[in-house]
Design goal:
Layout lengths: L5 E4 L1 H5 L8 H12 L3 E4 L9 H7 L4 E4 L4 E4 L4 E5 L4 H14 L5 E5 L4 E4 L9 H4 L7 E2 L2 H4 L6 E4 L1
Parallel strand pairs: 1-2, 7-8
Antiparallel strand pairs: 3-4, 4-5, 6-7, 6-9
Length: 158
Amino acid sequence: MTLPRLVATDLDGTLLRPDTTVGARTRAVLDQLRSAGVLVVPVTARSPIGLVGIAEPAGFDSWGVCANGAYAWHFGESRSLFSVLIEPDVVHTLLTGLRTAVPSARFAVVRDFGWDFVAEEGYAQLCVHRDHSIQPRVMRRGDLSELAGEPCLKVVAR
């Protein structure tokens, strides 16, 4: 049997169990693939911070494609290969348009490869740790001008 050179896999709802852990059988298969020279790449909407708890159990120590393809992260070396950020003027246009359309919406932005999360007042009360792999109480707070003040990786609305 000829093995592929690369296996790219989604995580949530695919590779991970419902409790977001890596099963022993799954880990064994991933290890067999890697031992055979197959590159195993997680491809996910998550930011690297959202993979901190599963990178080691899954054996991810190479590249992963994160944030819906917005960047590639090397787990073993903690470095980025590329990133495509949303520019401040686009964030501003998006946030003000959404605020007009849905006045009750609350927003947050993700920066610094997922390690910086800036949330509008009221946003943290609408989420839990599992939503963003960060405790809502430690999210940095900012108004719309702060959220749109720098390039960001993601814009989140609730």
